[in-house]
Design goal:
Layout (H helix, E strand, L loop, with lengths): L15 H7 L4 E3 L2 E2 L4 H11 L3 E5 L3 E2 L3 H15 L1 E3 L1 H16 L1
Helix pairs in contact: 2-3
C-alpha cells in the first residue's frame, strides 16, 4: 500500500509505476472516476510506461454518462482492453482453477 498523493493523477510524480514494474506487474486494471480527466491521463501514463491496461466499463464513470461512453470508445479503447467486472472475475477465476490443477 502506498500513501495517497493528492491530485488528479495518481501516477504523476509518484513511485507507483516503477514499484509495479519492480514487482513484475505487467497489467494494470484501472477503475474509478473520472473519465472526464483523471482516467484518460492515468491510462496514458500506464501504457506509456509499458503496462497492459484493462478497464472494466462498469467500474468507471464520467459526466454526463454519454460522454463517459465516448471516452471509453474513442480514447481508452485505443490504449487498452475494455471489459466488465463480471468478465474480469470470470477470467481470473478460470486462471485460478488452471493454476491449481
Amino acid at each position: 500500500m502506498l500513501p495517497r498523493h493528492h491530485g488528479l493523477f495518481p501516477t504523476a510524480g509518484s513511485e507507483l509505476l516503477p514499484l509495479l514494474d519492480n514487482f513484475g506487474v505487467r497489467t494494470v486494471v484501472l477503475s474509478g472516476v473520472s473519465l472526464n480527466l483523471a482516467l484518460p491521463h492515468t491510462a496514458g501514463d500506464i501504457t506509456q510506461a509499458g503496462f497492459n491496461l484493462v478497464v472494466p466499463r462498469d467500474a468507471v464513470g464520467g459526466t454526463p454518462a454519454e460522454y463517459g461512453e465516448q471516452v471509453l470508445a474513442n480514447t481508452i479503447a485505443l490504449l487498452g482492453r475494455i471489459t466488465t467486472v463480471d468478465a474480469l472475475v470470470t477470467e481470473w477465476s478460470g486462471r485460478r482453477g488452471a493454476q491449481s490443477a
